[in-house]
Design brief:
Elements lengths: L2 H9 L4 H22 L2 H18 L8 H20 L6 H10 L7 H5 L2 H12 L3 H11 L5 H8 L3 H21 L3
Helix pairs in contact: 1-2, 2-3, 2-4, 3-4, 7-10, 8-10, 9-10
Length: 181
């Protein structure tokens, strides 16, 4: 079943759409949640929360890119669960967010990332990057992957991955400053 058909089922309030979503995207949702939370049980809870959120938001939302909408919702739910569970602890997620804080003007990346305009601006920059640099950056900051893990996944040297992230962050900082952030 394709994304449009699933969206149509959701709009008709047909619960089988949730089964299709779980079958098609459940593993990806779980992977995103596990990378952020580091706990299988919490990751499974995020899968359920994501399905519940999608059920409640479609309609009125009608996403153009259903998989993107699903994974963005999953990431948001995982980060909210992380924040709730780890108010005082630091982990890879906090480190990733802290790494990006130096590219935003006021350093409050967590709240700014949720803003549509900043998201569009970042997407515009990323769409202009070559495939390898875009994948590396997304793996690091969307999937919260470690440098070594990215290098192994794409068969690259560790220093190449680190340098790619560093250069992309520099481009992002310059681009955000130019756009008024």
């Amino acid at each position: 079943m394709d994304s449009k058909a699933i969206t149509d089922l959701l709009e008709k309030r047909n619960e089988t759409a949730l089964s299709y979503i779980k079958d098609m995207y459940g593993a990806g949702i779980n992977d995103i949640a596990y990378r952020i939370l580091g706990n299988r049980q919490d990751a499974e809870e995020v899968v359920s929360d994501t399905l519940f959120t999608i059920w409640n938001n479609i309609p009125p939302d009608k996403p153009v890119n259903l998989p993107g909408y699903i994974f963005k919702t999953a990431r948001y739910n995982a980060l909210e669960t992380y924040r709730k569970n780890n108010r005082r602890k630091r982990s890879a997620v906090t480190v990733c967010i802290d790494e990006l804080s130096d590219v935003a003007a006021d350093g409050d990346v967590e709240s700014e990332i949720d803003e549509k305009n900043l998201s569009d601006t970042i997407n515009a920059l990323l769409s202009g990057l070559d495939k390898d640099n875009r994948r590396i950056f997304i793996c690091r900051y969307f999937y919260n992957m470690e440098y070594k893990e990215i290098a192994e996944r794409y068969g690259m040297g560790l220093s190449r991955v680190k340098m790619s992230v560093k250069r992309t962050k520099e481009k992002l900082k310059t681009y955000l400053e130019k756009e008024g952030y």
